[in-house]
């Protein structure tokens, strides 16, 4: 535990000693705001809810989270610091978790900074704050799932651009897998069970359910399981590279 | 995990069997294959406390790959690396605790300052509270980086970066120090300083340094291992290796040109002389140099000077050639080339960066 915390602390500090953190947060806030007000029609709906704000989170994460994730391992490999990190007296899971939690925490900070949206909607009306809290939680976990996918893919390469593109694509498939666009591809030949499994993997389906006020613990468990799976894969990838 | 045949070999006159306490590092049949490339080929050796081992070899010989296996960064294809009796693959964390490692090129987190970087290393090495401060201050003084503590490492010169890397490796006062080209990129003063540092630390530690600089080996190493194409080709003290130089203990004398033949004649009586060659000395008319080669292993300086003295031959100059490690290195690795070429083909180290 101690080692995870030390690594996470170093990583988080790293975000804030470079412009990366500030640029990310500013752009994240600007985009969530812009999407909610201009595209989502926050005011036109005349409803005290943050649905128009949360609705665009999956799409924003699709671009922004792989940008955070791509550097996690690829950069260490590129600059050679991975050789320092992995020869320190720590285990691979500690390194993976430390780096992951720092990045997730950082996204959490960015997400928390959208609180003026919550204040606004409370000033203007009387929203269901339970749903808003659940949506925040679901959004945070969804970001965590995107990040775990990105972290694992970042461990596969030393090229950050490749890590970004591949992670975005995989995240896109997970997001869209509930939609006909993806399912149609499988429907012709794959067994029904597989099609249904793929459909059940959809981030969009799980996230929309929470956003609309259907608070089901299973949606959070879905994201948590996915995070655990990809981080486990991340550890395996790093250990395999060691033996390669 | 069986013991590799040939492991019971003599090193420095001692027969090494199993790992004893004095042996801090033991490689047993260590082998690493990257796809079809055999980077390290069945290397067995050990390093005891108090030894500074110079690891020599041409580029791509497998030096870095061997060091990476020793430090647990990569896993061997077969064979084992043991640190203080601990198998690095099976007890990685325990083994890594005992090692200080400076990887090739001394990578560091460039956006950190040396101060925060060393703070991170101290914490992860398990130090607490005031001990962190104390450790950092001690190591800062050793490598002399006090003036740049609060600058991002990316903005530092190559010499400072390397010294930050050294500080990282030495911070926890490890029993085992493994340094991949520790003086690369340093100026002569800094090189001198780092070599002194290594010598000072060598008392009860096992130290391995890889280097291209052969004078460095003579300056700091108590033992030299040469590898090429992943194979161990020579193992001995720098003196022992020097004895393998082609012109080791060759005696050169310069005499008046007209007396050269007469001198050659009289030297012919000494049995341990293998050959005498007469050379002109460039730019000096009237002087001729005799290059007197001994038979293998023989010392002839004493006999020659005695003979010259008794025959009252006037000598302008006389000196004994020690030979250079460069020559030895070239000889050994060039032989290894031919020998290994059939099996291993190309250079090996490229794959290590994957």
Entry summary:
The complex is a heterodimer of chains A (244) and B (354). Chain A has 244 residues and is mainly alpha-helical.
Account of the protein in words:
The complex is a heterodimer of chains A (244) and B (354). Chain A is mainly alpha-helical and 244 residues long. Chain A has one domain. Helix content of chain A is 80%, strand content 0%. Chain A contains 13 helices and no strands. Chain A has helices at residues 2-17, 20-39, 51-54, 57-79, 81-85, 92-112, 115-124, 129-154, 160-176, 180-187, 192-200, 203-211, 217-243. The longest helix of chain A has 27 residues, at 217-243. Chain B is α/β, with parallel strands linked by helices. Chain B has two domains: 10-98 and 174-243 and 329-353, Rossmann fold; 250-321, ACT domain (Alpha-Beta Plaits). Chain B contains eleven helices and 16 strands. In chain B, strand 3 (23-34) and strand 4 (37-48) form a beta hairpin. In chain B, helix 3 (114-124) packs across helix 4 and helix 4 packs across helix 5. The longest helix of chain B has 20 residues, at 325-344. The two termini of chain B are 26 Å apart. The chains are: A mainly alpha (244), B alpha/beta (354). The A-B interface holds A 3, 6-7, 9-10, 13-14, 17-18, 79-81, 83-84, 86-91, 241-244 and B 34, 68, 71-75, 92-94, 96-97, 99, 101, 103-105, 107-112, 116, 120-121, 123-126, 152, 168, 354.
